[in-house]
Amino acid sequence: MRKFLVLCTAVCLSSALLQAQDTRGNFVTFDAPGASSAPQGSPAPMHGTIVADINARGEIIGTLNDDANTVIQTFVRYPDGRIVVTNDPAAATAPTQLALQVGTTPSAINDAGAAAGSGVDQNGHTFAFVRSANGSFTNFNGPQSDPWFVPGTRALSINNKGQSTGDYTDYPIASHAFIREADGTLNPFDAPDASFAGFWNGTTATNINTFGDVCGYYHDANAVIHSFLRLHTGQVIEFEVPGAGTSPYQGAFASRITDQGVVIGFYEDDNWQTTTYVRYPNGQIVNVSFPQIPDGNDFGIANVNHAGDVAGSYLDANSAEHAFLLKRNGQLFHIDAPNAGAGVFQGTIAVKLTDSGDVAGYFIDANNVSHGFLWTAH
After folding, report:
1. Residue 331, pLDDT above cutoff 50
2. What's the domain range around 310?
3. Domain boundary residue, one of 283, 304, 325
């Protein structure tokens, strides 16, 4: 069955590019209570309500920030429209001399309502957390190699078994990936060719699927970035993406792995231009383009669902963001929030596509304030 779904996803993704029609859907927009609504001079850093993920139950998790952008908080929006602000008790609630930006930042939520993310305390230390569906937080850090250095740790993904993955930064500022089991067991690992010399090198795990397969990226000895896949058996497969740049901090990033074993990522070429790629379980790697959207560029895929539908975002000629859903039958849905701005890096960004076909994300208005949205095709 899993093999069939893999082939279906591969065929649907490629065949869906052949034909499309412009179709519209329905929006629900929302703001988390307490989110900044103050107009900003530019879209970055983002202010307001920013969606991070949605699960199969329709629960949406994300962040909100204050007007000064110094305190980050977590919200959960439930299908009935309730929005609950929920923060890690260990996270600081006001900036300090050691930490100019603090708070609780979620990365993902699984279908049981458990979430993973990271927090920053009053000393500026970054720690990882898993939040249960009932709102209790469990914090953890990567292993210490020096007693005086506590590794900064991030949980970036959580699957339906409660396994989470991410990275931790060890002395002297090199990253290592980990898988944390639901019982709290932490299993660090690194890509075989990862380099730990210099700063900000090492291995980062970005996403984990239901089977425990993980994808991510690593820096080599020349600080060039490469993608990897770690199977649930423990085997790490490094792979090269054709066209990826070879200068320091250029290269290919793997950002998501589906339950069918399809890896989605992007690479920066020698001219720092960004292209999305897909790696299939047989090792085939293809660049992704969308000829049905001729005015689009800099495409990014949010994810591919079990049906083979694709959601993502792109920039238009004015560098404004637009979201889209391309279904396996060729239907193309343009997803533009009614109050989205049309300026540079304003617009609508798709974050996650559910198996039922709903898209969650956020949009940036003409005042450079972010708002959450849930889009449905019916």
Report:
1. yes
2. 1-24+305-378
3. 304
Contact 372, 77 (CB under 8 A): yes
The pair of three-digit structure tokens given for residue 94, joined into one six-digit string: 């006001």
181: CATH: 2.130.10
* pLDDT per position as a tens digit, 231-290: 999 999 999 999 999 999 999 999 999 999 999 999 999 999 999 999 999 999 999 888
pLDDT averaged over every residue in the chain: 90
Residue with tokens 């949406």: 60
Weakest-pLDDT range from 22-31, 75-84, 254-263, 318-327 = 22-31
Residue with tokens 């820096």: 219
Indicate if 367 and 252 belong to the same structural domain: no
Count of structural domains within the chain: 2
Query: For residue 20, what pLDDT is reported?
Result: 45
Per-residue exposure over 17-44, b if at least 16 CB sit within 10 Å of its own CB, e if not: beebeeeeeebebbbbeebbeeebeebe
From 304, 320, 354, the end of a domain falls on 304
- The whole-angstrom separation of Cα 299 and Cα 170 is 34
Mark whether 299 and 319 lie in a shared domain: no
238 plus 352 within the same structural domain:
no
Between CA 104 and CA 86 the distance in angstroms is 9
- 346 and 280 within one domain: no
Q: How would DSSP label each residue in 240-266?
A: --TT---STT-EEEEEEE-TT--EEEE
Q: Against a cut of 0.70, is the pTM above it?
A: yes
Phi-psi region of 124 (alpha: psi -120 to 50; beta: other; left: phi over 0): left
pLDDT at 6 over 50: no
State whether residue 193 is helix, strand or coil. Answer: coil
* Same domain, yes or no: 287 and 207: yes
